[in-house]
Design goal:
The protein is α/β, with parallel strands linked by helices. 37% of the residues lie in helices and 14% in strands. It has helices at residues 3-24, 49-61, 87-93, 128-137, 156-165, 182-191, and strands spanning 39-43, 64-67, 114-120, 143-149, 170-171, 175-176. Strands 1, 2, 3, 4, 5 and 6 form a six-stranded parallel β-sheet that branches. Strand 1 (39-43), helix 2 (49-61) and strand 2 form a beta-alpha-beta unit. The structure holds flavin mononucleotide (FMN). The site of flavin mononucleotide has 21 residues, from helix 2.
């Protein structure tokens, strides 16, 4: 066999090998959509105001709605502001390390990418059960967006305290959501880069 006939034969016998090599390379279809972030809406609410905001947010973004429940519920006496004998007052004015027990009912916490974390302001701060929640599930490196409802207090000092206590979380600036309509909440979520249904 002369050389001219041999070269095309060698090329043909290499084709399946080339095919295999190509199959081994994981090329991404440019039209393929990037994976959607998995969203957790977690909320502590004592009298239901923050829960209403959390439910609306959950309806808008999907994902999982998880209510943070203390192991021992707070009695109605805690609704009396500045009554030093109440559990809420004692906890909020106690040591920063205080962690009231919560029900550990959240499953697969590590699977979420973005956590929208709602709570009422209690004596200027996040209720201590919110700290227990973050200590329990350790959202290290995850995006956490706090939101609050309150009588009038803004979110900034509560958010700053959480940031200091949990520096490994990728905190985003949150907001006070009293009285916001679904349309307003939708605009807020979009401004945070969260896809709304
Ligand atoms: C124990 C306690 C302490 C509170 N402290 C504050 C406060 O410091 N500033 C404020 O604006 N509202 C304060 N509030 C009002 C709540 O933040 C507000 O009513 C909130 O919307 C309640 O949310 P929830 O219904 O989800 O529990 C306090 C309420 C309670 C029960």
């Amino acid at each position: 066999m002369n050389l001219h006939r041999l070269i095309p034969l060698v090329m043909l016998s290499c084709l399946p090998l080339l095919g295999c090599a190509k199959e081994g390379v994981q090329t991404k279809d440019p039209a393929e959509k990037p994976e959607e972030p998995r969203i957790l809406v977690a909320c502590f609410s004592f009298t239901g105001t923050t829960k209403t905001a959390a439910s609306t947010i959950h309806n808008l973004v999907g994902g999982t709605l998880h209510m943070i429940e203390p192991e021992t519920p707070y009695g109605s006496e805690n609704n009396t502001y500045y009554d030093e004998s109440t559990r809420a007052y004692q906890e909020q004015s106690g040591p920063a390390s205080l962690r009231p027990a919560i029900q550990r009912t959240l499953e697969n916490a590590a699977d979420y990418d973005v956590i929208l974390l709602g709570f009422p302001i209690w004596y200027g701060k996040a209720p201590r059960v919110v700290f227990t929640f973050l200590d329990t599930y350790l959202f290290k490196g995850k995006t956490v967006i706090p939101f609050i409802t309150s009588g009038s207090t803004g979110i900034s000092s509560a958010a700053a305290e959480l940031k200091t206590a949990f520096p490994d979380i990728a905190w985003k600036t949150g907001d006070r959501l009293n009285g916001k309509t679904a349309e307003q909440l939708s605009a807020w979520l979009k401004s945070l880069g969260i896809k709304v249904k």
